[in-house]
Description:
This protein is an alpha/beta fold. The chain has helices at residues 16-20, 24-37, 61-71, 83-86, 90-102, 119-152, 183-197, 203-212, 226-233, 291-307, 369-385, 388-401, 405-430, 436-466, 469-484, 493-503, and strands at residues 7-13, 47-51, 77-80, 106-109, 166-169, 178-181, 241-244, 247-251, 270-274, 281-284, 323-325, 332-337, 343-348, 367-368, 504-509, 514-518, 537-538. It has 4 domains: 2-139, Resolvase, N-terminal catalytic domain (Rossmann fold, 3-Layer(aba) Sandwich), CATH 3.40.50.1390; 158-245 and 280-308, Putative Large Serine Recombinase, Chain B, Domain 2 (Hect, E3 ligase catalytic domain fold, Alpha-Beta Complex), CATH 3.90.1750.20; 315-402 and 467-543, no CATH class; 405-455. The strands form 6 sheets. A 4-stranded parallel beta sheet has the order 2-1-3-4, sandwiched between helices. A 4-stranded mixed beta sheet has the order 11-15-16-17. The chain has a 3-stranded antiparallel beta sheet with strand order 12-13-14. α7 (183-197) crosses α10 (291-307), α12 packs antiparallel against α15 and α13 runs antiparallel to α14 (436-466). The protein is flat, with a radius of gyration of 30 Å.
Amino acid sequence: MNGFIRTASYSRVSSQRQADEKTIDSQLVDLRQRIERDGFTIDSSFEYRDEGFTGSVMLRPALERLRDHVVASMIDRLYVHSPDRLARKFAHQAILLDEMSRHGTEVIFLNQDGLPDSPEANMLVQVQATFAEYEREKILERTRRGLRHSASKGNVSVFGCAPYGYRYFRKKANEEAHWEIEPIEAMVVRSIFSLGGEYGYSLGAICQELHARGIRTRRGNAMWDMATVRGILTNPAYFGEARYGKKRLSPRKPGRRVKRGDPEVPRQTKVAVATPLGEQIMIPVPALIEKSLFEEVSKRMQENRKRQRTRKDGAKYVLSGLLICGECGSAYCSRSRQGKSKLVYYRCIGTDKHRRRDKPICNNKSVKGEPLELYVWSDLCDLLSDPIRVEAELKRRLKESLPTENKLATQKTRVNTLRGRLDRLIDAYANGLIQTSEFENRIGPLRSQHDREVATLASQQGELAMGHDIASVTETLSKLAGQVDEKLDAASFELKRELLTLLVKRIEIHRNEIRIVYKVPPNPFVPSPGNRGKLQHCLSSHG
């Protein structure tokens, strides 16, 4: 019987610090020991691990792959350390357990060892999930309230550290936590404000000046980052008013493309956004500069932003935010050259020397803007005018993985055969033809095999049902094409941008070709958050 059980495990830690310290290894050791004790073995490819992902959301890379494999009836038994490792919210946990139960996957929690499979045990799991969610929310609320109360009393301990130019001293028995000025770093801070305020240097110019003077960052880096300099120039603590609560966490907005090196699914579901000044708490600290100099720098930075591109006006070029280098994964950004006629082109930012200490990471070539924009727009118009193209592509993808009618019929026969064996065994026991001990020994393995084959049949039927969704996709594109068909030939910049961001996921610039990846439903069992998926269209070389 053991040979038929396909075993898997799922483990998770919430913070990046826990992931870096390998605290997830302790979960893996316990899971492997329990699996070995139950007489099973597990392949490393069926050990699903989410390192540094919160349990309050369901979109996690390893969990997504696990759910795909469960729906495909590839897993019979799943081992998890405790219910809160699977999900931190009761509703999410209920959805996951119901989904796994419907597809024939038995879930074993290590902290429930010895408990029988009964309604009482299921209720215990639900109670644990409710308390886990309550505990998490209560801790967050208590921590937030405690920190704000401490900040209102003027304690700098709420920051946990000190910015560049200060040194942080922890709380002791006879004194509170406090900041002290670091003389050498304080000189650098005053120089940065002097360059930005009195001499009007831009952020990039300040970074270059610091590098030329041989001044290193706190971590010892020779090159200063513009974001670091901007953080110094906008921090009110340097004129004596440290502010607590300048940022708050807000749900992450969906982006147009993933930044180079980042995973498809971000580790943090929320990002920091600025809060109104009235919600911030001011804490007095030693001042390094005058407030008038800080205000002068703020004015100059606003003027610099006005002279640069105005981000609030939105994209200035048709393909902004959609292009990505197929060689190094960096963004392709737009540039323009002034002359007799304005020339727009797109280039990989990985070719910029200043971004990597005069060592570019890519040598992919730039692309002329007008021919590229025309080619992408023409391909999009062809797609809208011919929705059958999308239908053909979806059919091609589904054909690679969908079960055939013969395979489905064979699976139905297998299920019916097992159902018949179960019925005959039950009838024999009811008529007294076999003993109770013999019945109990045979009914368990046979019922498990039947349930597994039923789950496989349901999975195959679900995959076939996906084919019927192709018509709805084609119908949706047809309606969209009908609404904008008359405007495509003379489309405005705004209409082009709206359609491109609606239908195009990304445009990859390779050395000898350009690939457009449209937003069409992929095969649910192949792509995952850590997989870039399949490309739909390959265009000709951009020369």
